[in-house]
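Quick entry, no commentary yet.
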Amino acid sequence: MIKAVTFDLWDTLVDDDSDEAVRAARGLRSKKEERRYQIWEALNAIEPIDYDRVALAYDAAEAGFNVVWKECHINWTVDQRIRVVLNGLKREVGRDVFERLVENHSNMEVDISPEPIDGMREALKELSTRYKLSVVSDSIVTPGTGLRKILEKHGVKQYFSGFAFSDEVGHSKPHRAMFDSAAEQLGVDVCEIVHIGDRDHNDIKGPHAIGAKAVLFTATRPDDRNITTADAICDTHHDLPAIVDRLAAETA
């Protein structure tokens, strides 16, 4: 029977890149541009370098990150990603500068956070009265420490009894280590979990491969709606508690 519910974070709990509109309204660079600018600024202060050269090296590092992420199910940490950029440029920075770059990258989405998806708080509050809850999320740029701060900022961190973030687990979804970590923290078996997420490959196929149930969440990213093998499709958080209860009743 279902005893726990795990949640993807991006486009499931928060609206991915909704923070870009806030940045634009404040006259700030996009996250993509700001990350490249920060490294250029740090290097240029030591020895002049063309911005376009730095941007190209960053793009190459991003391409490498995506290959490792999608094929090996591993997310490079922020410091690893910055080191790849610097190595590609054959440049170095001092320890203090490097640590500042890591901190600025890590906190960018904490300082200006993506917006919570409508009904998310209410759904978590209700589900937490009947099930144990955990987050199971890839840490693309913001590490798990920062993702916890985002959840706390939105007033929902207290509903979760476990956190499986890829930079802390050592693997990313759909690797079973992510779901095993959540199950261990919650004190349940993986087959007693229903996972909620927006990507069929990561959030549906991953749980199904280890005997868990899975719900495709489509409120902000419906791309996989017509190809999913999910046990259910949820279009809004307002419907989620009833969907989880139905799946729990079917497996009782």
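second:
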Amino acid sequence: MATLPRPGLGVYVTAGWPNGAVFAEFLDAAAGIADFVEVGIPTENPKYDGPFIRSSHRSAPVKGIAALRGLELPENAVLMGYAEDFAGRFDELARAAAGAGAASVLLPDLLIDMPEMLDAYVASMRANGLAPAFFLPGKFPYALAERLAGYDPLFIYIGLYAATGIKLPVYVERNIRLAREHIGKTYLVAGFAIDGPDKARALVEAGADGLVVGTAAMKRLAEGGVEAAVEFLAEIKRAIR
């Protein structure tokens, strides 16, 4: 995996959404704009996603590891799943991710709901040639942030809001600055509810190394097709560069 640029732009899309052909076309087109791609593993319980992305999971005809069969990911791609779906099966997940060409698997519920499985997750990633990646909630213990940085992860992703696509009055710039103080030079990604260039620019100015847009890009994909979604990504990239 190439080194992620600073600042970098990432985009999230659920695997196979809205259908196989459009998903493949968007993945190919997005790879020409975004610096990395997050591909969601469809699940029955996308508990930390917002309404729009939840609907994309629930409409997926194939869920779990089966959704990764035949998937060929672009460079710098990361899978995003839920630890509760793969508890006790992290090795199986990591093997499937490596087979699809992923650089890592991000599990946003791992440290919230299953922190006791942290070391097992890291071991499975490393054993299969992947880097760990971590989701850090907006309110986090400083010692946890420092511990995660010590694993030399691909990145640490700080969630700005309670769920994707939902706007809440939180001091997001402060959270980014605090995270930066405690993780040093580790690549810091900010995400959740980034819906325009002004917000993207402000987060980079606050200290984020990379951004991920999800709901806003997927809505444009649904409403205007691949071209509209890619134009939106290009607008965000111009804003942060």
